[in-house]
Amino acid sequence: MKAQAVVSFFFILTPSLCGSQASFSYASSTRSEQIVIGRLDEDVILPCLFESGLNVVIHWKNQDNYVYSYYKDSDQLEKQNLRYVNRTSLFHGEIHKGNASLSFQRLSLQDEGIYICYVGTSSGKITNKVVLKVGVFATPVMKYEKKNTNSFLICSVLSVYPHPIITWEVDNAPISEGSEEEIESLDPFHINSRVKITGSNSSYQCDIENTLLKQTWTGRWTMKDGLCKTHSENVLLSCEPANSSFLPSQDFTVTWSRVESGTSSVLAYFLNSSQKTVINEPRLSRNKLLINQHDFSLTLKDLSPSDSGEYLCNISSSRYTLLTVQTLHVVVGTGEEVATRLSPLRLVLGLTSLWVSCAGGQEGELEVEGGVNWNCKNKLDPVPSQGLQSACCG
Q: Which positions make up the signal peptide (predicted)?
């Protein structure tokens, strides 16, 4: 809180009967200025202190509007503007101690402005100036969207005032601002900022700053390496903060979902406040031993080709949103399927065989010419998952 004060005093000095001591009788005019920052829908106190005395008169005004009045030892609210009815009050038990501060409840953006506190007593008078500023910063969100073959990130804040500063980074390097959309509404602002994802191996970060409230929120998106599995296998879907500075230290939620063009479906979610995990997909499971390590990865069992697609992990708190995307490919593990997938590779590269790893760490040859044969130790074996991953993930 910033505060500036310009104070002028005029003292009448009367020598005391007690030697070198002096007593002061106030005939003074004091003017000071303070800046008070409040939050929308919350309460705030506008300060006003004075030298206590008899016959206290207090007036709080905003421009020509009476906010609150007190004299003759009681409230005098006949002239009070309707905007302040049942929202303002004094600390009556503190008035005789020199406290004329005003309690202001349920702030609105229209309450911003300059408030004058006038206090007069039998000892003198003061006039204080209080500048009230009101801000709001409802928790922003980062959303990941797919539309046909394009992918987008949207940083959105539903309610913010004053207008925030929004910045984007790709791989920790600043980029020009995304396309910003201000939703038509009365104050506070509703703002969306959108960027198109151009590199699947890049990380994107969005920062939204409210300079008045000195709050900054961060959204981060990361694409993990693709996963390739065979029918009936299990897969671990990664979900953990990539940066130690984002380790959850407060209430947060974790949501797992599957993303398709234009839609997403929630598979499971975790609430830190209750330590409760709700799973909507019965084939999903979670290693409870990893919870205290801030690892929220899930295992999806008994895969089928229909499980292929993008999986999104969302870790969100009031300070950040962390999005992690993984692409899963599931294929049927037969030689015929592998031949179909490898034929374009053979034609493009002119290959007749690929060397891959066999079970047990031994080398084997996957012959493409005239069909698919998997040869380990000069023995024809079915295609194992390691070889199939080489085939479908390249």
A: 1-20
Say whether both 157 and 205 belong to one domain.
yes
Domain residue limits at 234? 224-331
The closest of 159, 299, 172 to 229, measured between CA atoms, is 299
Structure tokens at 305: 């080709």
Query: What pTM did the predictor assign?
Result: 0.73
Query: Which one-letter amino acid corresponds to residue 200?
Result: S
Same structural domain, 124 and 13: yes
Q: Which CA distances in Å does 169 have to 299, 312, 321? A: 31, 20, 15
138 DSSP assignment = P
pLDDT tens for the 394 residues of the chain, in order: 333 333 333 233 233 323 333 232 334 555 678 999 999 999 999 999 999 999 999 999 999 899 999 999 999 999 999 999 999 999 999 999 999 999 999 999 999 999 999 999 998 999 999 999 999 999 899 999 988 888 999 999 999 999 999 999 999 888 876 677 777 566 789 999 999 998 777 899 999 999 999 999 999 999 988 899 999 999 999 888 766 566 655 678 899 999 887 778 899 988 877 778 888 999 998 876 666 667 888 899 999 999 999 999 999 988 899 999 999 999 986 544 544 554 443 333 333 344 333 333 334 444 433 333 333 333 333 444 444 444 445 4
- Structurally, the chain folds into a number of domains equal to 4
Phi, psi dihedral angles at 392 (to 5 degrees): -90, -20
